[in-house]
Design brief:
Helices cover 22% and strands 19% of the residues. The protein has twelve helices and 23 strands. A seven-stranded parallel beta sheet has the order 7-8-6-9-10-13-14, sandwiched between helices. β20 and β21 (535-540) form a beta hairpin. α6 runs parallel beside α10 (476-494), α7 (274-287) packs parallel to α8 and α10 packs across α11 (506-516). The longest helix has 23 residues, at 313-335.
């Protein structure tokens, strides 16, 4: 199965935009009109040398980020980049495609920061020809807790349904959702949504440089969505899996009592570019977020190679910038007690033995080329150092057919859904979580009266207030939030008083996650054959029961996390 366009790690859709072109008003020099914005990463301790290098290359600088070691520069296209690439002080150069910036970095919130009250790439699992399920009220009598709990096979797999009564998390734990946004007004997210701390680091761009539709029409003046909006639905689904509350509405997340913080880095169109990702990670670190979920890869390169012969010098410098810049941001966050969790990817690829990348560069669209890659090329952030990467499982517990894998790359596994994991295809084998009503209407998945048009969408009107909506999705995007929720439980239990509420060293969280995971051996034979829609594909699992390429250190377990002794 192919990966989706853009950086999302769930099978459905899923990028920041190119910088606005400088004004071409009369009197503006031609060079200035063609200048573009860049992130120029410099070697440790060489900020001055980098500034001088930019000037020698004919560019100018506007700011320096000393936290992550880069300068914001403006220069005249490829010639500027290639000139920088010859300077020993420069380690990477990337176009700054983001057109919107968060203008103020707030001080860290106190431990008692209020939680707002009600007022907010995946695999598409729609099944053609199927009829819509009844509203949740029609099956509520079969649910043990929340109205849609009976549909949550994923929570039963990891023992989250039992863990809720033992260790549901605490409001002192801040979970950052680095994604397409979070619908903070959704009835099954609002009680745990922290609007005050949430931020949006991107601005919608209706069209790309070629005049083709990118994010589509802006929903608000200025094209910068509010912090409680998600026009895509991906981030809302992720947030819901982590922390939907137990409130008599819809579902419950893995850790239903934690705070959810929207730290948006993805466009409506699903692209995630470098600058927004750097901003999101440093912001999370500075406000005291405890764990972040990153269900995406940084565009435009699926695999980032430092010196691939198939790439131009400019392309090599861009990939080096992504590798270097993201690692610095991840290190910055981890040193400030942010546990980093990422989706592994939906390419059905052994990341330890990649051979061909035909999806890069994914932006601008149509720029893709086929190039040979090897294990020196990495997916960012899934293969970055200090990141816990999660593979996806279907309802039988097998690795999902689409999920990437690899003995070096897979740290943990968790339910992510697999419609083909059984006889025939069924959306019931996917992961159900909250969906923004506006996004469902925009994509035609519900009718004018609000009734779902297919079994992909479920409506719950049993809470006494407005109806809420939920969507079945597959993907490693859906797996990683299960691990993030379990991490939140562990931090709630073992964290000590710290910035933003409580804090627990990522190394300790990692140790506890591995300790509480249920070890799962490779299938026998190790060369597992998937038979999907009349076709066969074989994935080979390497490693032993305690650590292997399909399941990592094991399947995350919320119940063990709720009961383990530290």
């Amino acid at each position: 199965m192919r990966r989706i366009a853009g950086g999302l790690m769930a099978l459905v859709l899923a990028t920041p935009l190119a910088a606005c072109s400088p004004s071409a008003a009369t009197g503006t020099p031609a060079a200035a009109r063609s200048a573009k914005d860049y992130l120029v990463f410099y070697a440790d301790g060489q900020a001055r040398e980098a500034l001088a290098a930019v000037r020698r290359a004919g560019g100018s600088t506007s700011a320096t980020d000393t936290k992550l070691g880069y300068v914001l520069a403006k220069g005249d296209g490829d010639a500027f980049v290639e000139a920088l690439g010859t300077d020993q002080a420069i380690v990477g150069v990337s176009a700054d495609r983001a057109i919107g910036f968060e203008t103020a970095m707030p001080a860290a919130a106190p431990a008692s920061a209020p939680v707002s009250g009600p007022a907010s790439g995946p695999v598409s699992v729609s099944s053609s020809g199927s009829t819509a399920f009844p509203d949740a009220s029609a099956i509520a009598s079969n649910a043990a807790a929340e109205p849609l709990a009976a549909r949550q096979w994923d929570m039963k797999m990891i023992g989250a349904d039992r863990a809720h009564g033992k260790a549901p998390g605490t409001k002192k734990v801040l979970v950052g959702i680095i994604d397409t946004g979070v619908d903070g007004k959704h009835p099954d997210i609002a009680p745990n949504f922290n609007r005050e701390l949430s931020r949006n680091f991107v601005t919608d761009k209706p069209k790309d440089e070629e005049g083709e539709t990118l994010d589509g029409p802006c929903e608000v003046a200025g094209c910068k969505d509010p912090v409680d909006a998600d026009d895509d639905g991906h981030g809302t689904h992720v947030a819901s899996t982590i922390g939907s509350p137990i409130n008599g509405i819809g579902i419950a997340g893995v850790a239903p009592d934690v705070q959810l913080v929207n730290i948006r880095a993805g466009q409506d169109s699903g692209f995630f570019f470098l600058k927004a990702s750097l901003d999101a990670l440093t912001y999370a670190a500075d406000i005291g977020v405890d764990v972040v979920n990153m269900s995406y890869y940084v565009d435009p390169w699926l695999f980032n190679c430092r010196s691939n012969k198939a790439d131009s010098k400019k392309q090599q410098l861009e990939q080096r910038a992504i590798i270097t810049g993201m690692q610095r941001a991840l290190d910055y966050a981890r040193k400030r007690n942010v546990t980093l969790i990422s989706a592994l990817g939906n390419g059905a690829t052994d990341l330890g033995h990649p051979k061909v990348d035909s999806a890069s560069p994914g932006y601008p669209r149509g720029s893709e080329k086929s190039r040979k890659v090897d294990n020196s090329c990495i997916n960012v952030p899934a293969e970055s150092k200090g990141v816990l990467s999660v593979s996806a499982l279907g309802p039988t517990g097998r690795k999902a057919v689409y999920s990437d894998y690899g003995i070096e790359q897979t740290d943990l596994s968790a339910p992510g859904g697999d419609t083909t994991d059984g006889k025939g295809a069924s959306p019931l084998r996917s992961i159900l979580a909250a969906a923004p009503e506006a996004a469902l209407r925009a994509t035609g998945k519900i009718d004018k009266s609000g009734k779902p048009k297919s079994s992909e969408v479920v409506r719950d009107c049993s809470g006494g207030g407005p109806c809420s909506y939920y969507q079945y999705l597959d993907g490693t995007s859906m797996a990683s939030p299960h691990a993030t929720g379990v991490a939140a439980i562990l931090i709630s239990r073992f964290g000590k008083q710290g910035k933003g509420g409580v804090a627990l060293a990522p190394a300790k969280v990692e140790k506890l996650l591995f300790k509480t995971a249920t070890q799962k051996a490779c299938p026998s034979p190790r060369k597992y054959v998937y038979k999907v829609f009349g076709e066969s594909t074989t994935h080979t699992c390497e490693g032993g029961k305690s650590k292997n390429g399909f399941y990592g250190h094991g399947v995350v377990d919320a119940w063990k996390a709720a009961t383990v002794k530290g």
